[in-house]
Specification:
heterodimer; A: about 180 residues; alpha+beta; six-stranded antiparallel β-sheet; two-stranded antiparallel ribbon; 3 helices; B: about 325 residues; four-stranded antiparallel β-sheet; globular
Amino acid sequence: VIGGARGTLYFGEDRFDATTFVSEWVSYVVLPLLSVRYYLSVRSPVLRNLRMERPSGVSKETQVSENKDEPVHCESSATIILDAPPSCIEFSRTAEDIFVVGTYSLVEAKDAGGSQARNGSLVLMRWDGEGLYVHTDTGAVIKGFFILESRGVRHLTFYPCTQKLASNTSNKLRGSRFALLSP
Amino acid sequence: LHFSPHEPEVLAVATSTGAIEIFHLRIDQGAHLERFKTIQIFESTVLVLSFAWHPLPQALTTFAVSLSDGNLALVDYGRPTALIKRLEAHSLEAWTVVWSPESPTGDSKDSFSLYSGGDDSGLCTFSALQLPVAKEENEDADGVPDSEAWSSAFDSKIHGAGVTAILPLCNRTNNRMQNALLTGSYDEYVRILVEGLNGRWRSTAEMRLGGGVWRLKMISSGTVLAPDGRAEGVYHVLASCMHTGARILQIRVRDSGDSSIKVLAKFEEHESMNYGSDATFAREGDEMHSRNLLVVSTSFYDRKLCLWTFQVHINTATRFEIGRVKEAPTSAVLER
């Protein structure tokens, strides 16, 4: 069951007439309510502040200063799963939105020698604030757009795929697809 | 892997097959990496575990490497024979090697200290290590003469397990260089080490981070005047702490040696060993009061790469600079 962009519901590939009522109910009642609830609970600074003022035996000033000494728990804006285990990473000093990831993987040797083979690779990436670009060896650029608002939701909107992805560029965004921007 | 501090498009990569590879980052016509050179310095069974570019701009092609056989080496890939010198340092793997950021005497002499950490829990210091003076004078058949008088010291009493990360905290106060290091270890501690008058390191602050401290990267550094009028070095450091994830630390070192470590931020979404992380200041934002730090951290077996941000507030009211500041994003004081 897929909720479409305007809140319509699709079952498989067909949109059933019988579901129109349900889909409208979902899009005009359930989703707005969920969004409002989500906004109030997570995004709204007003409510966050209000919550801090809830009587809890601790004055607001104390709570703030306590929070200031506690480490901040940071949450990811975006996550990507690489093809190989990453071992090192560094940002370029000139193009500061570009970084290089080094990977390192051990391959168990099948023959009697028993020594381990080791593979490494470099992945060139760029983050422009909303999308993560993976520059591949073949010169292709793959881009995914992240929705930054929420932590749990990382579903994405994409350019339509115009070409088949090169086979060696199987880096996956979680719960998402890439589109190829240039061959 | 590290970009060169002198030629920003040059990237060197340590490999597990005794070689260092040099790449050039090209950003015209779409970003890509161009392999420039492979320097097979050692046998392919030797792992190059870490390396550090030489801080001197004249030593463009020189770096120090640390090896799985416990040795260090000085390498200059601009020479016919790249290997300049081998240095015996550790009895087990030499996990990490770094240069002191400045010449200890403060002048332009090419004499720097080299610090290394090993799986033998040892911290090795090579002081006043000089590079061969001029290439032309040294291209005789016997390679490079070992002319200078450097000294080495080994300390295995400070750390409870292998020393995996070293970050020099260069603090120039009242025209006096204070040598201090931040170290990370498999014993899960970060420690601030200050060099005493006898030349030995002593730990002035330590904190258990809950995971082996594999990598330490400088985010910003600066000098402030503490309320008592004494100079204080303030550093912000990104720590990759293996199974416990990444941390942003605030390090303070007074010129009296008093020092402190504080965890400002934690990132714990990794489900495997966090070995590599790096951070950069995002360009946008109101630079007068706050800057956005963009962090990319990775974890090994789950092959995950995460982007996250940390808001940096620059508190201009309580700080001002004295002394010299080395790099661009150095003056930030991070506060939530």
